[in-house]
Amino acid sequence: MTDTRTGRWVRLDGTTNTRDLGGLPTTDGGVTVAGRVLRSDNLQTLSEDDVRRLVQEIGLREVIDLRTTAEILLEGRGPLRAVPEVTHRHFSLIPERGHYTDVFAVEEDEVVEGLPADWVESLLPRQAAAHDQEEPPAVRAYLGYLGDRSGAVVDAVRALATGGPGASVVHCAAGKDRTGVVVALALAVAGVGHDDIVADYAMTADVIEALVAKLAASPTYAGDMERRDVASHTPRAETMDRVLTLLDERHGGAAGWLEAHGFGAREQAALRARLRD
Fold it and tell me: Which of 144, 161, 167, 190 could link 271 by a cystine bridge, Cβ 3.0 to 4.6 Å?
């Protein structure tokens, strides 16, 4: 893992935005531990060397996938699905309708061979709360994950708390929006400070051109990549800063929001222990 700025990037052939959450300072003078939790963009194009490195060298044992069922069916099985040591968990942060919101159950039961023609209709519209209407679009989207899919958000954080031994990777398509929200909550519980959580989120800007190019090469994401320029895809520090500030004001912080949604003190202690010594 090498990077001229932080040393937390994990350079793989098949991803652009993979980094380790270890090495971040905590407000009580501690530090998060490397090799426990990674964050990433889509894992569908990992090479054989990537899989070997992740599983054998880093010790990856769990994948937490935040994409929709439609995205996963469109992209197909990734190479890590063939590794028996690696468990896959799926928690969509965008509302979906219908029975099959867990794509892995669908695949294993062989109920669905492909994507239905009306798959777009399986995604439900997100409704911003009245008091969030004046927030910037990215902030509204992130608050939408917390409002529309609070159960999935909590389940994803819970999976990070209970995973192990070995490393977990949490990812979506780009590894910046859905992944950014779940990672921010986890880091806050671990005791990482506001500014360092924001800085971790904003690191995706360092690789945004390569990331957009990678997604544009996939028919699943090409349309969205082409409709907007690179600047519009670039994460802005003020977005995560605003989301964390609103969590502070409304819930006493990320930990307060999690507790209010069923992720209490015992589970939060388990998450802290996972991310720290």
Answer: 161
